[in-house]
Amino acid sequence: MAAASPPFPSSSFRNPTISNLTSLKPSSILVSSGRSRFRCQISSFDNQPPHWSLDFLSRPEPIHLIQNPSSMSMPAASGSDSAAKIVKKVCLFYSPETKALADRVASESDSIELRSINWRTFEDGFPNLFIPNAHGIRGQHVAFLASFSSPGKIFEQLSVIYALPKLFISSFTLVLPFFPTGTSERMEDEGDVATAFTLARILSNIPTSRGGPTSLVTFDIHALQERFYFGDNILPCFESGIPLLKNRLQQLPDSDNISIAFPDDGAWKRFHKQLQHFPTVSYISAF
């Protein structure tokens, strides 16, 4: 590094500062002290030491510029180390019916920690619920694996689902593998009740967590337009199990002799694009 400057009094170089770096070329640094300025040119940043020196004819000792520690060259982190830093730890709660599935999910990843809930009832049959170690999930990412298999199971799980985001958690994800009222999403006649919209409104009132709206993950919902049944307080994420079905079919010994039959026109519209490489059996229309 070379410094080009006329002689300056030594008093003018006390506490020099680097300024206006953004207005200069990458190889140029401007150092100023009071009203005095000088420009330094750097020919290369390769193998630069962490300390730089500027020598002046009018000073017996050089001025030392110490490089910012954050900009010093560090050994490149390996891919596994980088991946380990971005892995999100998740506290997974589950309903009694999904315990076996939750155990399988947790066994697949070390980043998932299973958390239990005391599912008790009062003498009259109404839920008496308790979340153990509720203080321990503060600031954590939390998920709940639900099962709305019957109307009687929905209320007790909703009670927990509404309570978890209010425990000062970082984010909340509701995993509902099957959306039970999905097939009742429209009115065929005046007086029909679209219960899919009813359940969507109930889930849309889940309180927000520190991270924002709740994420709802469900699989193969009956109609994709049901995403518009949910309010702005919840983010529906529609997943599909069709890729798993295709992988399973391809593992069969007679995988080259498989045809797909759709039960009705709605099923064909919903899934035929994901199964278009299989031969299709024509369905019999009811009309």
UniProtKB/TrEMBL annotation:
Domain of life from the UniProt record: Eukaryota
Reaction(s) this enzyme catalyzes, per UniProt? D-ribose 5-phosphate + ATP = 5-phospho-alpha-D-ribose 1-diphosphate + AMP + H(+)
Similarity annotation: Belongs to the ribose-phosphate pyrophosphokinase family.
Gene3D superfamilies assigned to the protein according to its UniProt record, in alphabetical order: 3.40.50.2020
Entry's Gene Ontology BP terms: 5-phosphoribose 1-diphosphate biosynthetic process; purine nucleotide biosynthetic process
GO terms, molecular function: magnesium ion binding; ribose phosphate diphosphokinase activity
Tell whether Phosphoprotein is among the UniProt keywords: no
Q: Which UniProt keywords apply?
A: Nucleotide biosynthesis
Which positions fall inside the Ribose-phosphate pyrophosphokinase N-terminal domain? Answer: 91-204
- GO terms for cellular component: cytoplasm; ribose phosphate diphosphokinase complex
Record has Transit peptide as a keyword = no
Q: InterPro entries, from UniProt?
A: Pribosyltran_N, PRTase-like, Rib-P_diPkinase
Could you tell me what this protein is called? Answer: Ribose-phosphate pyrophosphokinase N-terminal domain-containing protein
**Cross-referenced Pfam families, in alphabetical order?**
Pribosyltran_N
